[in-house]
Amino acid sequence: MKIIYTTFPSEKDAKEIAKKLVEEKLIACANIFPIKSFYYWENSLQEDEEYAAILKTKESVVNKAVKRLKEIHPYTAPAVIVFSAELKSENYAKWMDEVVRTD
User: Fold this and answer.
1) If we measure between CA atoms, which residue out of 53, 46, 51 comes closest to residue 82?
2) CA 43/CA 82 separation, integer angstroms
3) Which CATH number is associated with domain 2-99?
4) Domain locations along the chain
């Protein structure tokens, strides 16, 4: 299993994009939650309220999911971080196989 982590400027953006990726069968599900972010942008320290998303997908489609995420992401330079995860639930794995594309 692959986990894609990213952040969004608003809850609306996070929900819309997560739903789109689920509808396109590129991810099985998304977890979205508010966060406080600190970073430099254009030579200035920024402090923002953002929404983080954990997107769960299969290894076979992670590159397509990342490509699509970058296409529709509202940020100019979005954080798109992919982690490998060991799935320990056979029922979850079976469900993921049913809802995520096979290509």
Assistant:
1) 53
2) 27
3) 3.30.70.120
4) 2-99
